[in-house]
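Hey,
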Amino acid sequence: MQRPRMRLRPFPKLTGPRSRRATRTGRGAALALGLAALLLSSATPGPAAAAGFDPALFEVFVDSNMGRDGRPVYYYSTGTVKTFPGGQLLANVEGVDMARLIRRDPDGTVHKASRKMYIFRDPKTGAVIDQVGGKPNDAWFYPYQYMTFRLDGDTLRATSTQGAGAAKRMVDIGSAMDARRVGDVVVFSAPNARERPDGTGSYEMYEFWVQPKGSTVQPSTTLTLTLVSWHPIGNGKPVYTHRTSWRVDRYADLPASLRDWIDRNAPLYREPPKDLAEIEALQR
């Protein structure tokens, strides 16, 4: 049995003022949609999937992270510590991470010497929180961190050593770091997860955003950190830390609010360790 054909009726033709208004409206809508599509196509960056390292990206990482000539590199940081979950502000954070390149091996491995410190400030008064729970609030003070990085094909491999005496430990970071290009900007992402026997631990993600050589954009490199961890200020519960950092090349360029505190209370943190001998002395 043959199916009856469906007949499509044409839309009725509009005439008069309404037809002219409809035509103008239709043209305007089409023009608006075309402009929106054009703006979206020009503003949306292309794919930024992690594609691994190559020699050029490795050198960008070294230069932005520790410099090339042995002179110090500083990353000034500011941020917040909040309850997790909940988001209640517990403290503001201010600090600095400093580093220098101390050696480059024949196989291309680079050796980095760094130290970092972060102080908490009362959200209302700005005063430094020296103690938490009757104990010194120095959990985020690191007199040294010794790291190595090497390129293995398209993978960056790294190790990190911290601590002194029986507490000294070396961690094989492995190949966790990703590299990607977002337009002309290079982004390095470094996750770090720790688990402790008591069931606590932490998860943090560092992201470096590096401007291309010759760019007039300042600062040349920014760094964001997101961290979920256990800290005494959380009263037995996890806390969420977010920090934004940017690179400066001289201690004198750090804000006076931090320099004054370091000069009075922690002069060791004016510059990174000079060499491996200084690190070995701190490890004893």
